[in-house]
Amino acid sequence: MATLLYVAHVLCVVVWVGGMVFAMAVLRPAAHAALEGPQRLALMEGVFRRFFRLLWHVVPLVLLSGWGMLFGWYWGFGASIWHVHLMHTTGLVMAGIFVFVALVPWRRMRAALAAGNGPAAAAALDTIRKGVLVNMVIGLATVAVATWGRFGG
Ligand code: HEM
């Protein structure tokens, strides 16, 4: 059971962090180079609609599998180790940022697009970009710390 939780945890982390790297480092610059404002907004609306729908499933799984391992395997906070404490903290921060981005600027962007207000949609998209960028950096650092903590001592 612990192994299953571990595999699920790492798979969900791969989808979350890898998805953010793809969106920020690959898709966004390519969209900027190839598309004008309105088409770019339409593309990014479709991208984040699908990505956030996926993340509403993946993010809870990261937290639940992490807690499952922490409390079922390491028997709670007392017996666990520094990299797990750090991962737990950054995981909660990342989940908070995701929930904020998916509830506030994302809803604002969709409402602005529905109202035909391009500048307001672009402003909301920029807030989404900043939130995803911050989460990507924290996520990559968390993966580095988690793997270092487990195998690097
Ligand atoms: C509530 C939040 C989280 C908790 C309680 C948690 C807990 C855990 C635990 C207990 C392990 C096994 C550790 C070991 O045996 O060494 C683990 C592994 C791992 N976690 Fe998390 N985690 C959380 C969030 C995250 C997040 C947000 C990421 C990445 C963005 C992440 C990345 C990893 C990775 C890469 C591993 C495999 C390396 C390792 O075992 O340390 N975790 N997690």
Automatic annotation (TrEMBL):
Keyword presence, Nucleotidyltransferase: no
Residue spans crossing the bilayer: 6-27, 54-75, 81-104, 132-151
Keywords: Membrane, Transmembrane, Transmembrane helix
Keyword Membrane in record: yes
One CC-aspect GO term: membrane
Residue stretches making up the Copper resistance protein D domain: 47-148
Source organism, top-level taxon: Bacteria
Full protein name: Copper resistance protein D domain-containing protein
Taxonomic classification: Bacteria, Pseudomonadati, Pseudomonadota, Alphaproteobacteria, Acetobacterales
